[in-house]
Design brief:
The chain is an alpha+beta fold. Helix content is 25%, strand content 30%. It has 14 helices and 39 strands. About 9% of the residues have low confidence.
């Protein structure tokens, strides 16, 4: 028997609002964008998911095309296959050392062969290039991957990201050529920023990509209920244990697809599985999902907590409201034996008190009043805020549990530096990601590497459930120092040393779960698995469970992906170059993509483009759903924290190399971009000239053209923010930086209010005065190439 019904949406109100945003602002329906369709098919068996992702690119131009697409994948997904089909020709990708793969790709394009390459930029950000696609041709790119699902309080979550969100890029632009084709220049703090920042479509742009998504669930005897999704879907339950979830047509690539469902209490327990390898005799992979009972451990120790609240521009709107509520609600669960303070940050830091204060009624009430005045604007200097929080906790009590409670969307490009800093600090992080497209790779890794917990909130409706869990977990873990051992009748079954993951911080909080992965020998003889751990009172807990031996090929690459990420974290935290060959070897051995490898494929069946001359297009991406910092009516980055481009395509427009045109709201004048003429030109703005010419444009405008005035003031905001970022590391320029901060606030307030031409003239004069002062500053004389 089959039944059909529509799943409840996770965030109905936000999506309904977005459906009407920005309509009527565009000239044309689609244009000649290369990406035409994306298809996602996932099969879930128990707690494992295997996904096939297809991307279809079509060359609608009259010359050969190279398409570049910066796209997301789940950070826990092990990518094990990469293929390309053009017509009847199917080519299999090969995993190679990254630089070697790049050289092979460049050579193939030059020789006129069709080719494609996929590289990992971050655990959740990838770059695909498809080259020598001839006019009228269509290329179908297919990835296959495997990943574990998340289980928390009996709730299973499958998350598949669909868009790379704009990220704040700290640092000073480098003078060298950009290493990628994105819109942001590489900086001293994020030297690959141009590989993380795809161009962004105008809000309201008609949907350029056909999205289809289907999830098949084999419940394996588990009882599922309360199923919901973040996009409009229809679910079909067939006879038996099989469920089908299918996306309705018309959805956009502007948020993570999230599917959640609950397990009955009887099915929510410890499960262990061993999968023998098909090609390695007597070896296999262990999979154990350890769950913990609900237990409130908050009263066992006093707590010293620093709340770190992201108030940057990307948090504007519902995200800022939700973030304030998160801090306020958790803060309200503290008692008089606890101490706390709150740090709010954008590219500056504010704190209610630079010292820990008692969490009595008076202290909590004062904090609530202070939180009410926090709004969103500016950049995302999360490292400075976390450093401040760690410094405050230097005064923590010896008998207190010390923790940092971070609330953010995580949209930064310097993830490695953030992880390195917090690994060295040795402080537990409780992390809440607030976004429809959170940087889950960074946030979940921060929690894992510090022994904390990470939760995600994609809408305000999810707040109560998440906050209840967090309040219960802001204490000691229910289980810690978890260890496992195999037992068999012959005594041969054993774990392979140094393969148990996670390698550190094996902890389980109240109602939570811990996924344990390991490599093992003589797995077919294994019969039982014993798990031991420490309880909050210091007593030892242990349990022995039967071990099911069953072939599941996805487990081995899932373990390899997890081990690679652990080694990559160590590589970052320890700055240990000796780990690179180990990561490379592991990646190639298990056929799993990593930061040091890339998938390359070349179709050598025919030369299709002698000479290798191609038109290069970077695929623009959607504005993330729920990002209110974008002003759909005007078409600019309303709260600019990074240099960004919005693109409005027309079928009649010519598409320039590296995506410099046509642009509806060009935030950086083309004449101010200096290029070496190479394939990946440098995009370093001449800041002084940029600001000066922007001011000149505003001064010459017809003041009655309010939209034009607002458009150029938006560019001025971005220029001021860039200047502020440049001045931040220069102590002698702090006075000028403060003036720029004030100017930014005043320009921003002007944009939000009614036109006042006298006020506008005053603002323009103040900007000119700051430029004059900056031109005389000795520290900027050394930066003439970009200043």
């Amino acid at each position: 028997m089959m039944s059909h019904h529509t799943l409840p949406l996770i965030e109905e109100e936000v999506m309904e609002h977005e459906a009407h945003a920005g309509l009527g602002t565009l000239r044309t329906p689609n244009g000649n964008l290369p990406l035409k369709a994306i298809s996602v098919y996932t099969r879930i068996v128990g707690m494992l998911a295997e996904t096939t992702l297809q991307q279809v690119f079509k060359n609608t131009l009259n010359q050969p095309l190279e398409a570049t697409y910066i796209f997301p994948l789940p950070p826990s997904a092990a990518v094990t296959s990469f293929t390309m089909r053009v017509g009847e020709r199917l080519v299999e990708g090969v995993l190679e050392e990254r630089q070697r793969a790049r050289e092979q790709y460049a050579q193939a394009i030059q020789q006129g062969y069709r080719a494609a390459i996929t590289e990992q930029e971050r655990p959740n950000v990838f770059t695909l290039q498809v080259g020598n696609l001839m006019p009228g041709e269509e290329a179908q790119i297919t990835f296959r991957m495997a990943m574990p699902l998340q289980l928390d309080m009996g709730e299973v979550t499958y998350r598949f990201p669909l868009v790379v969100a704009p990220r704040y890029i700290p640092g000073i632009p480098l003078d060298d050529e950009s290493v990628g084709a994105g819109v942001m220049p590489d900086t001293d703090q994020v030297p690959d920023a141009s590989r993380l920042t795809p161009p962004v479509l105008l809000p309201g742009f008609p949907n350029p990509v056909k999205l289809s998504l289907e999830v098949e669930i084999d419940a394996c005897g588990l009882r599922l209920y309360d199923m919901c999704a973040s996009l409009h879907t229809v679910v079909t339950k067939q006879q038996g244990d099989t469920w089908h979830v299918r996306l309705q047509p018309g959805e956009r690539l502007n948020r993570d697809f999230i599917l959640r469902y609950r397990l009955s209490d009887e099915d929510w327990n410890i499960g262990a599985l061993a999968s023998p390898d098909g090609d390695v005799e007597e070896e296999g992979t262990l999979f154990c999902l350890l769950t913990a009972p609900k237990q409130d451990t908050r009263a066992q120790l006093p707590r010293d907590v620093v709340f770190v609240l992201d108030r940057s521009g990307s948090m504007e709107g519902w995200k800022m409201v939700a973030a304030r509520r998160v801090v306020g609600r958790v803060l309200d669960t503290l008692t008089a034996q606890d101490r706390f303070t709150v740090v709010a940050f954008n590219d500056m830091i504010e704190t209610i008190d630079p010292h820990l204060q008692v969490a009595d009624n008076r202290g909590r009430y004062r904090a609530m009043e202070w939180l009410a005045g926090i709004d969103a604007r500016g950049g995302t200097e999360v490292m400075s805020a976390l450093h401040q929080a760690a410094s405050i906790l230097n005064s923590a009590r010896a008998d207190a549990l010390e923790a940092i409670f971070l609330v953010t969307d995580g949209q930064v490009g310097n993830e490695d530096a953030v992880i390195r800093q917090m690994k060295q600090a040795g402080i537990t992080l409780f992390v809440v990601g607030v976004d429809t497209v959170p940087n889950d790779a960074l946030l979940s890794r921060l929690a894992r590497e510090t022994g904390g917990v990470c939760e995600f909130i994609e809408n305000e409706a999810r707040l109560d459930e998440v906050l209840q869990r967090l309040a219960e977990r802001l204490g000691k873990p229910v289980l810690q120092d978890v260890e496992v051992a195999l037992h068999s009748p012959t005594g041969k079954a054993q774990l392979i040393p140094d393969t148990l993951l996670p390698s550190q911080h094996r902890v389980v909080y109240s109602g939570g779960s811990l996924l344990l992965l390991a490599r093992c020998r003589h797995v077919k003889e294994a019969a039982r698995l014993t798990i031991t751990a420490s309880l909050p009172d210091g007593e030892t807990w242990n349990q022995t469970v039967p071990l099911r031996v069953q072939a599941h090929p996805a487990l081995r690459p899932i373990w390899a992906r997890d081990m690679i990420q652990e080694l990559e974290t160590r590589y970052v935290a320890e700055r240990n170059a000796e780990l690179e060959p180990e990561i490379l070897s592991l990646s190639l051995q298990h056929g799993v993509l990593s930061r040091f490898t890339a998938y390359i494929l070349v179709d050598r069946s025919e030369v299709v483009n002698a000479g290798g001359e191609v038109r290069r297009i970077v695929q623009p991406v959607d504005v993330p759903g729920g990002w209110e910092m974008y002003d759909a009516d005007v078409g600019f980055y309303a709260e600019p924290i990074v240099l960004q481009r919005f693109v409005d395509y027309s079928p009649l427009d010519d598409v320039a190399d590296d995506f410099y045109g046509p642009v509806h709201a060009t935030l950086l004048p083309a004449e101010l971009i200096h290029s070496s003429g190479s394939r990946t030109p440098s995009r370093k703005p001449k800041l002084r000239r940029w600001v000066s010419e922007t001011l000149q444009q505003i001064e010459q405008l017809d003041r009655s053209d309010n939209q034009a005035v607002r458009h150029w003031l938006a560019q001025l905001l971005i220029a001021l923010r860039e200047l502020r970022a440049v001045l931040q590391p220069i102590p002698t320029a702090s006075d000028i930086a403060a003036k720029i901060d004030q100017l930014f606030i005043e320009v921003e307030d002007y944009l939000r209010g009614l036109p006042d031409f006298h006020q506008l003239d005053t603002l323009l004069k103040q900007c000119r005065d700051v430029l004059t002062e900056l031109s005389k500053h000795p520290a900027l004389a050394k930066r003439t190439r970009w200043w």
